[in-house]
Amino acid sequence: MGKGGGCVPSKQKGPKPSSTQDSHRPLPQVEPTDDTPATDAVSEIPIQANLKLFIVFYSMYGHVEGLALRMKRGVDSVEGVEAVLYRVPETLSDDVLAQMRAPPKDDSIPEIASAAHLTQADGFLFGFPTRYGCMAAQMKAFFDSTGQLWREQKLAGKPAGFFVSTGTQGGGQETTAWTAITQLAHHGMLYVPIGYTFGAGMFKMDSLRGGSAYGAGVFAGDGTRQPTEIELALAEHQGKYMAAVLKKLAQI
């Protein structure tokens, strides 16, 4: 330390930079290889979730449920589409159901939580038995609970179809479906009938068969008759057909 408290610079000097050009030379660029993770690109790739097709039904004696289970098989056979089964709430008391000799419900199929849950689906298949040519009161009560969805048009543009059960040949295989179209119309939904896409099966006359161009169907008779294989096959076809339509609409 010199006079006045100043510092005496050291005679040792640090390494001199080679040149100004070298000090500003850019770092070498590393080309990505197959093993280099492209983190930005990965984060931008959207995860494609399966389309959800809700099969929502009411079944007192199990006939509609039988169609619904087979319908799910058809939906699930189409890649990229997943069927989810739901019951609508029962409106009759246990005492009344016991007097009508209705069997207990299958607990493995959940009851739909509320009408608002419908917004989570991309499409629908609604199933119900007939009551004098129209849908059963339990299903109608569920549709009546969709008022807020109707007000906001939350279901507008979503496709939907029907499948039914009747007691007799003249009991409403067609009218039960087409009288239900009003529910879809007010919601702005797209009604998807199956037409005659089932092919030769639609023209079989050698045995009793439910179903029509409006959708799959079953004859319940006095309640003891169970769905035949041709009726179940039509239900499976409708599920597969509806899933294919849903995929096409999703690509628009």
From TrEMBL:
Domain of life: Eukaryota
Reaction it catalyzes: a quinone + NADPH + H(+) = a quinol + NADP(+); a quinone + NADH + H(+) = a quinol + NAD(+)
Segments forming domain Flavodoxin-like: 53-242
SUPFAM superfamilies xref list: Flavoproteins
Known EC number: 1.6.5.2
Region of interest (Disordered), ranges: 1-41
Needed cofactors: FMN
Coiled-coil regions listed: none
Alphabetized Pfam families for the sequence: FMN_red (PF03358)
Family note: Belongs to the WrbA family.
The name this protein goes by in its record: NAD(P)H dehydrogenase (quinone)
Gene assigned in the entry: LOC140011152
